[in-house]
Amino acid sequence: MNQTLAIIKPDAMESGKAGKILAHLEAAGFTIQALRLVSLSEAQAAEFYSVHKGKPFYDQLVAFMTSAPVIPVILEAENAVLKLREAIGATDPREAKEGTVRKLYAESKERNAIHASDSDANANTEIAFFFSNYERLGVD
Ligand code: ATP
Ligand code: MG
Hints:
Layout: E1 2-8, H1 10-14, H2 18-27, E2 31-35, H3 42-48, H4 58-65, E3 71-77, H5 80-88, H6 101-105, E4 114-116, H7 120-130, H8 133-137
Bound molecules: adenosine-5'-triphosphate and magnesium ion.
Adenosine-5'-triphosphate binds at residues 52, 57, 61, 91, 109-110, 112, 115-116, 118.
C-alpha cells in the first residue's frame, strides 16, 4: 500500500460535487487517510504549482485555486499514484476516458475538478505541504 495526494478543486466545491468525487474514489478502491478543508492563499497556491511558473496558464491557475476552498485528501491504495492518475483521467475533460472523475465532473482544462500527484516523490512533497505528521499518522 502507498499514498498519494488528491485535491478537490474550487469548481467541484462550488458545484457541490465534493461528496460525489470522494464516493467515486472510495468505490474505485482508495481509502481516505486524512482530509482537510483549506482556503489557499495566493502564495500557497503559487508555491504548490510552482513547477508551472512562467507558463501562460500559471497566473490564472493560481487565481482559480484561490477562488474557493479546496479539499486536500491523502488516499491509500496499491500503486496509489498511478491508480489515482488513471481514476481522474486526462487534464482536459474532453480527452478524459469515460467514467473518470474529470470526464464526469470537470468543466474545462483549467476547471478540472481534481488534482492528483504525478510521482511518488511529488506525492510525498505534496502530502507534507498540507498535512503534518500528526494529521497524517493519526497519532497523539
Ligand atoms: P494537476 O497537476 O492539477 O493534477 P495535471 O497533472 O493533469 O493536473 P498539469 O499539466 O500538472 O496537469 O497542470 C496543472 C493544472 O493547470 C491543470 O490541472 C489545470 O488546472 C491547469 N492547466 C494545465 N494546462 C492548462 C492549459 N493549457 N490551460 C488552462 N489550464 C491549464
Ligand atoms: Mg500535475
